[in-house]
Structure formats: structure tokens, C-alpha cells
């Protein structure tokens, strides 16, 4: 999306919300680059052949430097934050100028406006029932917040149950061979259970499947028993002890999910006040009802915020068939003013983020992720030094698995916090005009066929008891990411705005004339000349001119030319029509 800039709309130059997260990203980048350089130095000292003492440090150094550069690149792309006039995205697809129609998305918003309510999907499932019982206000949260809360609540319960199962099974590790295979089972099981939802799309994990949860519970209970039963016939894994890594994986994952869930719940606000104002009028007019929509368009231009055009979501012009004597019509137009930040946002710093209720737990989540990522880099560097010192033992697998776990969970912390750092609250105004009624077409004539100098004729439209509805609402909305979908969190009716707009449109419609009459000064002069030539009284002609001519273009015609009858000013010496000299 292009960045639209205007010096008159500085309120949309929002401060960078990722400043605090950038500090952690650059810290991680420095740590990983330093560890990567040390690993490459160890590889350079072992250039003799393609041995493990050369290959392992080389691979580790490349991976460390690669992720360090990636963290630095993420931080540098967020050093500046641009939020143009075209953002945030609309509540529905916007219509270009001159386009007729509307989308299904705006019909959903219109239905909420009509009912004066906000609609939310009803949560289903046993775990969701427990979640919404403990946090009743969650039902009023935007849909992304609800989806993430459902996912993390489910993951947290599964991780906690698996952790308890591991501790219980650990007490039954009577034989070392059994402990080795049970530890492998729990590490693989916990990795699949924890890392899979952490690295996948959170929205796809929103549906809670009770059948899958039952399978996981049964596997966590019976799995260790089955493994212990066959452990005596399985080979020894003395070089691979993973029960400590499994314990660390479950504890770290549980802490990260708890921090993220705490930060997510802090995004909840008080239940919004939701109501709607609507003015309904019955009008009798003698003009095309589309003129009301055109006048609405002109009035809405005066409501442009910071000279930014309104977002138009729907327009349907009334259709009048001139070939039929009577018929029905409907028309509507829906516009939204430019969404503006609901409050003035100051540049974010670490101290202000820790002081904020919504951002404090996000800082804790980033800090926890930073510690895990740095611990993973240190574990991988220790693995390099063990190859360097030729002290190869089972601690190599311990360092490698520890680094993998720390990296995966730490990366999840930053992926999860990124969604919540990009929250912005906006306020705007939605105006919706509805027209419906019956029309009758007729031919209107003005002037006598035998005695009148000028006669006019036009096809007129008479609308009897047309229903006009005007809806307005002050809308509060939120986005998570500047290019993400915008969600309505509150609506408040604007009674004064609604009544003022309805009164203006009704007065405009009633003031439209059904007759056609000349208003050009040149046409009026010719009409006066025709009347004089037909013997009409000059005083009556003058009075007719004064009645027909607009007040802004009236000419003081206090004498007329005796030759051609064109009205003249009193100070004129020659006729402007024929050039005759006045006596």
C-alpha cells in the first residue's frame, strides 16, 4: 500500500509502536553475531580436512550469524513507522467515485447499526466454556483476541497436564534403560505438542477439538507405561538423556504461554456502550429523490476529517422509470469519516512501556524470549567448544537439544508479542442514509396557450410519503497491525448530528421546484421585449421582470426603448438593443 502524506494531517503520523521490541531485537542480534564470530574462529583454527572439529563450528557459526543478521534486519525495518492517510483499512471494501453497489461486509455492519448491537461468534466447546467462565469480558473482545486466547488457554492446559504426567512418570524410572526411553518419548511428545502450535498460524489453531485433547491425555498417561513395558528389549540410550530437556521444554513453554496469555487478557477493556440514533421522516416532494443523495454527498464533503475524503462503502441511487405513471424506488448511501487515533500517542520508551497496563506484560514476554534466545546461542557455542577440546560425551546431545528448545520457545515469544505491539485504537463516524417510497410521474405546464408570452412544459415527479432514515454512530475500532483488518469495539449514537442532517435534507427536498422557468438576465430581457411589443403595460412588465429575475441579478429597468422595447437604465442615452438615441 502506498504511503500518502499530507502536512495537514499530522494526527496520522503515529509513533513507532515497535521501539521497545527493537531494543530486544538488536540485543539478540549482537549476542548471536558475537557467538557466531567465535564459532567461525574455532572453525578457522581447524582447517585441516573436513573433520567434525571444522564442520560443526562452521555450521554453528553460519546459523548464529544468519539469525543475528535476521534480527538486525527486523529491527532496522521497524526503525521508522509509516502510517499513511489510506490506513487503517476500511470496515468493508471501499467504492471508487461513481461506482454503484455495496458489499456483503457492509451489509453486516449495517445490520449491527440497525439493531444497535455488536455481534460476536458464540464460543463452543468444553474448554471454551471454562475459559469464558473465568474471563466473562472476553466475549466482547475483538475476534483476533478471542482466537488467540482460546489457543493459548488450550495450549497452557495441555502443557500443564503433560508436565504433571512427566513428573509422575519420572518417579517410576526404576531402571536407567526405562528412564532413557521414557525421556525420549516425553521429549518427542512435548516437542510435537508445544512447538507445532507455536510455529504455526495461530488463527488456524483457534478451534478446540475435544477428541484430539482426549487422545493427547490418553497418550500422556499410557505412553510411558507402554514404553517402560518394551524398554527391556530396546537398546540402551546412555548417550542420549532427554528427560531434563523435556522438563525444561515444558517449563519454558508453560512460562511463555502464561506471559502471553497475561498480556492478551490485558488487551480487554470495559464493556463498550453500544447504541444507535436514527431519524425517520415522511416527506412529500416534487423532485427526483436522487437529488437528496447528491445533497448528502455535498454535505458529507464538509465533514472530511483533516481534508481526507470519507470512505464510501455503499451507494444505490433511486431509479425512476419515466415510461410508467407510478412505481416504487429505494436508495441508500453509506460513508465513514477518516478513522483517527482515539487518543494522542506519545513515543514509546522502555520506562513508559513498563508503566502501561497493556504493554507491561509484553515487555516481560520479550525479556523472557531474549533470555531464552541468548541461552540457546550460549548452548550452541558450548557445543562448538566441546568439539574444539575433544571432550565428546553425552553433553553434546544435551547442549544441542537445549539450544533447539530455547531457540524455538524464545522465537515464539517474539512472534506472539509482535501481534499485540501493533495494536491501534481508532474512532470515526458512520453516516447511513436510506430512501424508499412511491412516485408518480406527471407533465407540468406553466403559462396560457393563447395569452401568455412564455410557456414552459416539463415532466415532473411527485413523491408522496417517502420514508427517509438517517443513521449516525460514533464508531470505536481496533487493529492489530497497521495493514490488518479493523474490528468494531463500540458504537455510540450521535443524536444532534442525526437530527441536524435529517432536517437539512428534508428542507432541501421540500424547497425543490417542480416548474421550469428562465433565470438568465438575457432571457428575461427578451421576454420583456416580447411583452412590450404585444402591447402590455410597461409597469406590469417591470413588475414581471422583478418577480422573475433573481435578486442577485436584478436590473433597475425604469425606462424602455420606444423602438424595440428593451428595458434600459435611467442614465442611458442610447438603446443597448437597437442603438436608437433617447430624447
Automatic annotation (TrEMBL):
<protein>
    <recommendedName>
        <fullName>Zinc ribbon domain-containing protein</fullName>
    </recommendedName>
</protein>
<feature type="transmembrane region" description="Helical">
    <location>
        <begin position="54"/>
        <end position="75"/>
    </location>
</feature>
<feature type="transmembrane region" description="Helical">
    <location>
        <begin position="361"/>
        <end position="384"/>
    </location>
</feature>
<dbReference type="InterPro" id="IPR036259">
    <property type="entry name" value="MFS_trans_sf"/>
</dbReference>
<feature type="transmembrane region" description="Helical">
    <location>
        <begin position="23"/>
        <end position="42"/>
    </location>
</feature>
<feature type="transmembrane region" description="Helical">
    <location>
        <begin position="207"/>
        <end position="230"/>
    </location>
</feature>
<keyword id="KW-1133">Transmembrane helix</keyword>
<keyword id="KW-0472">Membrane</keyword>
<feature type="transmembrane region" description="Helical">
    <location>
        <begin position="179"/>
        <end position="195"/>
    </location>
</feature>
<keyword id="KW-0812">Transmembrane</keyword>
<feature type="transmembrane region" description="Helical">
    <location>
        <begin position="156"/>
        <end position="173"/>
    </location>
</feature>
<feature type="transmembrane region" description="Helical">
    <location>
        <begin position="242"/>
        <end position="265"/>
    </location>
</feature>
Amino acid at each position: 500500500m502506498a504511503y500518502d502524506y499530507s502536512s495537514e494531517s499530522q494526527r496520522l503520523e503515529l509513533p513507532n509502536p515497535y521501539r521497545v521490541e527493537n531494543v530486544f531485537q538488536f540485543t539478540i542480534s549482537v549476542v548471536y553475531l558475537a557467538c557466531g564470530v567465535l564459532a567461525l574462529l574455532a572453525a578457522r583454527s581447524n582447517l585441516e580436512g573436513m573433520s567434525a572439529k571444522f564442520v560443526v563450528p562452521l555450521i554453528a557459526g553460519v546459523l548464529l550469524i544468519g539469525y543475528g543478521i535476521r534480527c538486525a534486519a527486523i529491527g532496522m525495518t521497524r526503525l521508522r513507522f509509516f502510517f499513511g492517510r489510506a490506513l487503517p483499512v476500511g470496515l468493508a471494501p471501499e467504492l471508487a467515485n461513481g461506482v454503484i453497489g455495496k458489499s456483503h461486509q457492509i451489509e453486516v455492519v449495517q445490520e449491527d447499526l440497525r439493531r444497535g448491537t455488536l455481534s460476536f461468534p458464540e464460543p463452543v466447546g468444553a474448554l471454551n466454556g471454562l475459559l469464558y467462565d473465568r474471563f466473562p469480558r472476553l466475549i466482547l473482545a475483538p475476534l483476533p483476541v478471542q482466537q488467540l486466547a482460546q489457543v493459548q488457554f488450550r495450549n497452557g492446559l495441555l502443557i500443564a497436564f503433560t508436565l504433571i504426567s512427566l513428573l509422575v512418570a519420572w518417579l517410576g524410572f526404576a531402571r536407567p534403560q526405562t528412564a532413557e526411553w521414557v525421556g525420549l518419548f516425553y521429549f518427542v511428545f512435548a516437542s510435537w505438542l508445544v512447538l507445532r502450535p507455536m510455529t504455526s498460524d495461530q488463527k488456524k489453531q483457534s478451534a478446540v477439538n475435544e477428541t484430539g485433547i482426549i487422545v493427547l491425555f490418553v497418550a500422556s498417561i499410557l505412553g510411558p507405561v507402554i514404553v517402560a513395558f518394551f524398554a527391556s528389549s530396546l537398546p540402551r540410550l546412555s548417550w542420549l538423556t532427554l528427560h531434563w530437556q523435556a522438563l525444561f521444554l515444558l517449563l519454558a513453554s508453560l512460562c511463555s504461554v502464561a506471559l502471553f496469555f497475561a498480556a492478551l487478557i490485558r488487551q480487554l477493556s470495559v464493556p463498550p456502550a453500544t447504541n444507535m440514533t436514527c431519524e425517520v421522516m415522511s416527506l412529500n416532494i416534487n423532485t427526483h429523490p436522487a437529488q437528496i443523495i447528491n445533497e448528502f454527498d455535498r454535505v458529507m464533503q464538509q465533514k472530511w476529517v483533516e481534508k481526507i475524503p470519507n470512505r464510501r462503502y455503499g451507494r444505490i441511487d433511486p431509479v425512476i422509470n419515466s415510461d410508467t405513471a407510478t412505481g416504487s424506488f429505494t436508495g441508500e448511501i453509506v460513508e465513514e469519516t477518516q478513522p483517527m487515533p482515539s487518543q494522542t500517542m506519545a513515543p514509546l520508551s522502555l520506562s513508559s512501556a513498563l508503566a502501561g497496563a497493556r504493554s507491561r506484560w509484553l515487555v516481560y514476554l520479550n525479556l523472557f524470549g531474549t533470555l531464552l534466545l541468548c541461552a540457546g546461542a550460549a548452548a550452541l557455542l558450548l557445543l562448538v567448544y566441546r568439539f574444539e577440546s575433544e571432550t565428546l560425551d553425552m553433553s553434546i546431545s544435551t547442549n544441542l537439544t537445549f539450544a533447539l528448545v530455547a531457540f524455538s520457545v524464545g522465537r515464539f515469544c517474539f512472534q506472539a508479542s509482535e501481534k499485540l505491539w501493533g495494536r491501534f485504537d481508532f474512532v470515526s463516524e458512520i453516516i447511513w442514509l436510506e430512501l424508499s417510497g412511491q412516485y408518480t410521474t406527471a407533465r407540468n405546464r406553466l403559462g396560457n396557450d393563447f395569452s401568455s408570452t412564455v410557456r414552459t412544459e416539463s415532466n415532473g415527479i411527485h413523491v408522496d410519503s417517502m420514508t427517509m432514515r438517517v443513521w449516525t454512530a460514533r464508531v470505536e475500532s481496533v487493529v492489530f497491525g497497521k495493514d490488518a483488518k479493523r474490528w468494531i469495539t463500540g458504537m455510540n449514537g450521535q443524536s444532534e448530528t442525526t437530527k441536524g442532517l435529517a432536517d437539512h435534507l428534508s428542507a432541501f427536498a421540500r424547497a425543490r421546484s417542480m416548474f421550469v422557468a428562465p433565470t438568465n438576465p438575457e432571457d428575461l430581457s427578451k421576454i420583456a421585449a416580447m411583452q412590450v411589443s404585444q402591447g402590455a403595460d410597461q409597469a406590469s412588465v417591470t413588475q414581471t421582470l422583478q418577480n422573475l429575475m433573481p435578486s442577485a441579478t436584478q436590473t433597475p429597468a425604469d425606462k424602455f426603448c420606444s423602438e424595440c422595447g428593451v428595458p434600459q437604465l435611467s442614465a442611458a442615452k442610447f438603446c443597448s438593443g437597437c442603438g436608437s438615441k433617447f430624447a
